[in-house]
Amino acid sequence: MSITGIKGMNDILPGDIETWQHLEEQARKVFGAFGYREIRVPVAEKTELFCRSIGETTDIVEKEMYTFTDKGGTSMTLRPEGTAPVMRAFIQHKLHALDPISKLYYIGPMFRHERPQKGRYRQFHQIGAEVIGIDDPKIDAQVLAMLSHYFMTTKIPDVSLQINSLGCPGCRPTYREALIDFLEQRLSCLCADCQRRYTSNPLRVLDCKVPGCKEVTIDAPAMLDNLCIGCEAHFTQVKNHLDALEVDYTVNPRMVRGLDYYTRTTFEMVTGSLGAQNAVAAGGRYDGLIRDLGGPELPGIGFAIGLERLALMLGEQSVLPPRPELFIATLGEAATNAGFSMLTRLQRRGIPVEMEYTGKSLKAQLRRADKIKAKRVLIIGEDELQRGMSQLRYMDESRQEEVELDSLESLLSKEIDGA
Ligand code: ATP
Ligand code: MG
Fold first, then answer.
1. Which ligand is located closest to the Cα atom of residue 80?
2. C-beta neighbour count of 212 within 10 angstroms
3. What is the pLDDT of residue 259?
4. Is the model's pLDDT at 277 over the cut of 90?
5. Could you tell which of 62, 262, 309 is best to mutate to test the pocket of ligand 1, judged by most ligand atoms within 8 Å of the CB?
6. How far is the CA of 391 from the centre of ligand 1 (A)?
7. Of 4, 213, 218, 244, which has the highest C-beta tally within 10 A?
């Protein structure tokens, strides 16, 4: 029996990859314009990093991590998200000493042991961005403006931005107690998971997808009504700046995030078109995280976009594959050899060119040119070769010209660069 891939870990094949490349290129372009630079960190980290940052009682750490002991006895985990590794690298390399403000982005695979289904996989990909060193609400608004702009330029349909504030270590404990009190009185209506975690992580109950839990918590106290003066003012300013930047959003007081490190502004981009997997991007402020990981006292904010869900929304093969500029068709061995040299010469110049390698009939060669949608076909016959000539056929215009083989390179370069 042949070997297949691992469940929940997908191949991205030619035909679909163009959509992915489009999403990645657009991210580089948009994030670049907003002043972000790429950072690449390993796919595996010491397990402790994720336990300490994401939180021991979160779904990710409790249930979803790919953790194993390597041959040297170190407990390693395949990264379930990007923020903790990026902060680890930031602290380790003292990036704050180079520049008090860091704007970083990453693109790459993440790993979570979840039940695979549409829009939920075990290896999935995120594009994420982080700003370290600024707690001004203007940066919260700008991060959201950039995220919204990215969704606009990639032409992702039907997404909306929801925002909330999760308060700070000053105001959240009081709210947490009030929420625990509320849940305690309704314990029998909660699912088994929530009954277990309502004291250790009561905010997670608000995010539970079980219908019973959703219903019980409709009237639960909201963090937004319990913010301290500082958090309240911060949130108001974020909203004011979003209005000024004309970024559409709705306030969702029930939105909590599944990672413990968030403070103040949190947000999600949601869609109506992916069923239960409705979050396409999510993030928030994490002002205590860098200090908790042993770094300096610096604020941070960031988000991660789920690429599989975006690709699903754009639809398969939504971005057309590139078309070869030229297909070289030949008749006879001498012409084939001349064509093969020409092929390599043009490819070295950076011009996408194809030919048939195995001496097929002219008809079969033209069929292949058609199949791969070559823009032009160059036909070199024996007699023509002796005269140094060839026929150049423009496939979209059904027109054909006789051209000198020697001038083909410059002719093509001119046509392609001038296009
Ligand atoms: P969900 O509620 O759908 O489980 P999440 O809150 O766990 O999402 P985050 O940790 O905030 O997700 O990750 C940010 C984004 O990454 C999500 O909005 C989603 O688009 C994507 N994502 C998260 N987990 C997966 C997964 N298992 N497969 C595919 N995409 C995912
Ligand atoms: Mg999840």
1. 1
2. 13
3. 75
4. no
5. 309
6. 54
7. 213
